[in-house]
Design brief:
The chain is mostly helical. It is built from 13 helices and five strands. It has a three-stranded parallel beta sheet. A two-stranded parallel ribbon has the order 4-5. Bound molecules: adenosine monophosphate and tryptophan.
Length: 333
């Protein structure tokens, strides 16, 4: 059976890149009847970089609220918090014994986050991808819907799964497939079409957050960088115009139409007149999600109950898998 697993960190508010690159695809995957789905708020990952411990549990609830508001239905998917299922950390240690330092050192996200001063970087940040592998393998997940930037971590997960199988002479872990789907697997910054939209960018004007009001969305899109050429006749002609391409991609993804059609509809128009249309599409799509999120956060008990039930369901799957791993590795008979 197909088992889908994915997660996001409660490090700050989700933005349009998280939504279009990952969350929206998770919601679409709920249409598949023959699959089991687990969506996790990965709070253990969030503490690998400096963070505000007074805000962590609230941030976790906000991400869970965003999942539900975007359409993740706790009846159709198992929605839970990573730290509520200790199997993840336990399996991580076991997998860590098989993870090669050299491979971890090559992870681009690690290099980006560690910066130049690697001597002072915490072991948690270095081992982050091993915990991610444990998240996935603790459920023997077969499919992992993520944005493009997570591809390398998935490769490492696949590598650890086969190292385990080879070392212990078993056919135990499946090879999880990355599902990099949807029309916008890499949403770019509104201010620089060559860098991805990210929560760590200094300026809030580079991203649209799921909690932004219609006014903020409008302001950010109006100020988004473009060039002085009009919309071309074909999509191919947008090559080499990263900012323009990004706005077209966002429009297409939110409106649910192909990029070619967006180009056809607005061919010949300047971006100054395309932007109001984009604002309309963005506000119409995002405002209901934002409103629902705010409503959910007014009654936290409801989210907390859903997460508690989710953890029980998740552990019913991961705890026997961990027990099997312990047996295979010789801890138990
Ligand atoms: P993160 O913000 O790193 O916790 O990412 C959570 C999820 O959102 C992951 O699946 C990422 O691949 C995805 N994601 C993050 N930023 C972007 C982006 N700019 N475009 C598309 N997907 C993204
Ligand atoms: N590393 C992922 C990110 O930064 C988050 C993550 C942690 C994840 N564990 C996972 C994604 C397991 C998919 C599956 O976005």
């Amino acid at each position: 059976m197909k088992r889908i697993f994915s997660g996001m960190q409660p490090t700050s508010q989700l933005h349009l890149g998280n939504y279009l690159g990952a969350l929206k695809n998770w919601v679409d995957l709920q249409k598949e009847n023959d699959a089991e789905r687990l969506f996790c708020v990965v709070d253990l990952h969030a503490v690998t970089m400096p963070y505000d411990h007074k805000q962590l549990s609230q941030a976790t609830l906000e991400i869970a609220a965003a999942y539900i508001a975007a359409g993740i239905d706790p009846k159709k998917s198992i929605l839970f918090v990573q730290s509520h299922a200790p199997e993840h950390s336990q399996l991580m240690w076991l997998l860590a014994t098989m993870a090669q330092m050299g491979k971890l050192e090559r992870m681009t996200q690690f290099k980006d986050k560690a910066g130049k001063n690697t001597e002072r970087v915490g072991l948690g940040l270095f081992a982050y991808p091993v915990l991610m592998a444990a998240d996935i393998l603790a459920y023997k997940a077969t499919h992992v819907p993520v944005g493009e930037d997570q591809k390398q971590h998935l490769e490492l997960t696949r590598d650890l799964a086969s190292t385990f199988n080879t070392r212990y002479g078993v056919d135990f872990f499946p090879q999880p497939e990355p599902v990099i789907a949807g029309p916008a697997p890499r949403v770019m910054s509104l201010r620089d079409g060559t860098s991805k939209m990210s929560k760590s960018a200094d300026s809030d004007m580079t991203r649209i957050n799921l909690i932004d009001t219609p006014d903020m969305i409008s302001k950010k899109i109006k100020k988004a960088k473009t060039d002085s050429d009009p919309m071309p006749e074909t999509l191919e002609e947008l090559e080499g115009r990263p900012e323009a391409m990004n706005l077209v991609t966002i429009y297409a993804a939110l409106a649910g139409i192909p990029k070619e059609e967006v180009v056809r509809q607005y061919a010949g128009q300047m971006f100054g007149s395309f932007k109001p249309a984009l604002i309309d599409v963005a506000v119409n799509h995002l405002a209901p999600i934002t409103n629902r999120m705010n409503e959910l956060l007014e009654n936290k008990d409801q989210i907390e109950d859903a997460l508690r039930e989710g953890a029980v369901k998740a552990r019913k799957i991961s705890s026997p898998i961990l027990a099997e791993v312990q047996k295979i590795m010789g801890f138990t008979k």
